[in-house]
Amino acid sequence: MKRILVAAVILGALSASAMAIELPAEIAKRGSIKVALVPNYPPMEFRDPAANTLSGFDIDLGEALGRKLGVKIEWTETSFAEFMPSISTGRVDAILSGFTDYASRHEIASFVDYLRSGPKFFVQQSRASEFKDMAALCGKKVGASRRTMFPAEIDKWSQKNCGSNPIQFVGTDGSADARTQLRQGRIDAAVQGNETLPYLMDIEPGAYAPVGDPFATQFTGIALPVKEKALQQGMVEALDALIADGTYRALLAKWKLNDNGIEKATINAGQ
């Protein structure tokens, strides 16, 4: 009888870890979700230089969601430019890669939002005294990834605050290139999501200084095909379960993202 009771407890625990969520038939049959990422945006996703393995908040979150859903996560490395085509053609089932939820993307993808973020200016620590406030950025060269919405947000802020002395925007090939140009003195300041800046300042102590507060509010989400309503609902339920059992908060703390957490999963859906 004791062995039966122990077996029942173990079976119950296993059942609780994989939730009874109805997934699309193809995913259920395959037993996995194909997830696209570009591992170059620490601490969201990157390759551990020592082990050459995928690491970061999104990796940990994705694996935890897979356990809740009872499926394996198949990570598929691609380019940023291929994110939306990969979703629209069915090459992947999801994008989980520090991907911002913009209304302009809703025609192709619906988003399950899981982080609150925003663009933030930063400069080299050695020049911090030149930039005591955000107004000091007017007329300066500011770099950010041209593949994001940061250029538009920078322009919007500049038009509102700089008048006849606008920021001179410099497009870069990603956030790493922006930091390289900043160190080389080719730009005066850079912009990066406030979900990544604390981590970078921690691993490169004394290198950077933030300027002001985030100048826009954005949400980072899991991009899913618009028509896959069951997968969208499954992701919401799995994320809410991770929030409820404390896993989500533990991951935020691990990757220094406590200020970016949400209280409940939401879907921003396309038509």
From TrEMBL:
Annotated ranges, domain Solute-binding protein family 3/N-terminal: 32-259
The transmembrane residues are none
- Which SMART domains does the UniProt record give? PBPb
Q: Name one Pfam family in it.
A: SBP_bac_3
Q: What is this protein called?
A: ABC transporter substrate-binding protein
Per the UniProt entry, the signal peptide is 1-20
UniProt KW keywords:
Signal
Organism (species): Bradyrhizobium sp. LLZ17
Which SUPFAM superfamilies does the protein's record reference?
Periplasmic binding protein-like II
InterPro entries the record matches: Solute-binding_3/MltF_N (IPR001638)
